[in-house]
Amino acid sequence: MATASAVSTTYLELSQEGGGAHKFYEVTVDGLVVTVRYGRIGADGQIQTTTFPTAEKAKAAAAKKVGEKVRKGYAPAVQGQRAPRAVTRRQVSSAPSTARAVAPVLWRFRTGSAAFGIHVDDDRCWVGNQAGDVYTLDQEGAVLARFSLPDGVKCLVADDFWIYAGCDDGKVYDLSSKLPFAAYDIAADVDIFWLDIHEGVLNVSDRGGRLTVIDHEDEHQWARRSQGEHAWMVRADDRAVYHGHHRGVTAYAPDGGGELWHTPTKGSVLFGWQEDDAVYAGTGHRVVQRLSKATGTVEATYACDSAVYSCATSPGGRFVFAGDSASSVYCFDQHGTRLWKLGTGGGSALSMQYRDERLYLVTTDGSLVCVDASETAISAAQQGTVPVARDVKLAAALPTYVPATAVTAVTTVAQAPAGAVVVECVQESGRVRVHVLSEGYDSSWNVQFPRAIREPGVRYVVDALHPAAGGFYRVRGDIRRLL
Predict the structure, then answer these.
(1) Cβ-count burial of 72 within 10 angstroms (0-12 exposed, 13-18 middle, 19+ buried)?
(2) Is the pLDDT of residue 340 over 50?
(3) What are phi and psi of 156, to 5 degrees?
(4) Closest Cα to residue 423, out of 397, 448, 391?
(5) Are 195 and 157 in contact (CB under 8 A)?
(6) CB-based contact 30:62 (threshold 8 Å)
(7) Residue 108 has what pLDDT?
(8) Per-residue model confidence (pLDDT) at position 408
(9) What is the DSSP letter of 39?
(10) How much is the CA Rg of the chain, to the nearest whole Å?
(11) Where do the H-state alpha helices sit in 332-465?
(12) Which residues are within 8 A (CB) of 113 and not within 5 positions of it... i.e. 6 or more apart?
């Protein structure tokens, strides 16, 4: 009579003082199967499972993995005894505005918690708050849907069609379909302050002033420690990654991270914006500075009356907008002449974006505010005439989406609908990758795919795949498991 194989588990932790690594590594052997779980201490972490031809080879592979980690400083530990490291939450103050007039607010949506994340495109307005809620609204303020994420949202960024939320749990969630998923799991020793994504490559700035670059398969590419700490700004394009910290802005080559230039700024950088040829740094010294992307030269300075929490521009930088710590919003011409200063009517703007003569703000009181930034409306506001702001209410039956955490959370279909694309999870070098099976695609390319639902041999149906410049595919639309 055969006996059940014994299951053995080795649990290790690496925790360094002063904000260094704080992560775990667990290896479990169950017969022919080796399961590795790793991540931040206190988090569920990522899981990789590998099957070996014999139990002896499984044990040998597990022992090798454990040995490699011990040599890197990991040590045996008891799970749960060491507390998770606290995540830095941005502490901001907001004073009443000193402006004589209030901005012409068209509508306001109160999310219930301080909000940092904003993105506005042709169809929707997105807002993410410290409670982990992300709401989508149409251009007139009607609430369309809600995403409920596990932790506070630090920022929302767009990369072409795809929308990503960087959260306090160290994960970056893809919100581009009804099935939000953790697209990136940032290293345990990175305390994320801000992020940007360009062509699927994630750029992360953190509390220690570091810049960490991660590819579409969540694998570390390179990292640099800048001259300053508290790096609240990161922007990226084909030419460089622009990193703002308390000693200025540093530009790095996207391939390898070589420093291209460094420019000191007037005060610590608190926010960043970019146009095709310039980056804009809002600082604690009450200014926004425009820097040339090519050389780092300061081309213009936009003076405010208090510390600048956020900034944005109209297309091409024709107008420059800034939000300060005293609940005011400013508009300048491209050369630095102040055109107007108005009160927000509801807290300081922590992030902002201009689109089609409207300025969208997210504020310290948790509101998404839509301001009429047309010349006519602003002139009227300066004279004391503003519209009555409409308070947006939540719909009674609002669609709410949460990240999938298991294969069982995904809808199952018996066959692929016409026009859909079939992909398959495969085991490669100890990692589970996803490749496309449908004709017309490069089967050697990986597909960026939710790790929580990857299982070797399982096939999925997706609405569409789009190629990224880095040589991989990204999913667009719904994901369903294929029987």
Answers:
(1) exposed
(2) yes
(3) -120, 130
(4) 448
(5) yes
(6) no
(7) 96
(8) 57
(9) E
(10) 24
(11) 375-382
(12) 129, 130, 131, 133, 152, 366
In one-letter notation, the amino acid at residue 29 is V
Report the relative pairing of strands 412-413 and 162-167 from DSSP bridges: unpaired
The tokens for 259 are 């420093």
Which structure tokens are listed for 457? 């041999």
For residue 462, give the DSSP letter.
E
Residue 212 identity: T
Provide the token pair at 481: 């498991």
Distance CA 377, CA 194 (A): 33
Check residue 5 and give its pLDDT. 62
Rounded Cα distance between 59 and 409, Å, is 32
Give me the residue label for tokens 């790095």: 252
Q: What is the mean pLDDT of the chain?
A: 89
Nearest to 189 by CA among 175, 174, 163, 210: 210
- The yes-or-no verdict on residue 27 having pLDDT over 80 is yes
Rounded Cα–Cα distance for residues 271 and 320 (Å)? 14
What span, in angstroms and rounded, lies between the C-alpha atoms of 389 and 107? 5
Q: In angstroms, what CA-CA distances link 343 with 16, 204, 319, 334, 381?
A: 45, 32, 18, 21, 10
Spatial separation of the C-alpha atoms in residues 91 and 188, rounded to whole Å = 22
Which amino acid does the sequence have at 201? V
Token look-up 């300075």 returns 301
Token pair belonging to 300: 């213009």
Comparing 33-37, 93-97, 263-267, 388-392, the range with the smallest average pLDDT is 93-97
Q: Which of 44-53, 110-119, 206-215, 236-245 is predicted least confidently?
A: 44-53
- pLDDT surpasses 70 at 21: no
List CB contacts of 461: < 8 A, sequence separation 6 or more: 413, 416, 417, 420, 421, 422, 423, 479, 480, 481, 482
Q: Given this model, what pLDDT does residue 185 score? A: 78
Other CB atoms within a 10 A radius of the CB of residue 219 amount to 9
Q: With contact defined as beta carbons under 8 Å apart, do 371 and 417 qualify?
A: no
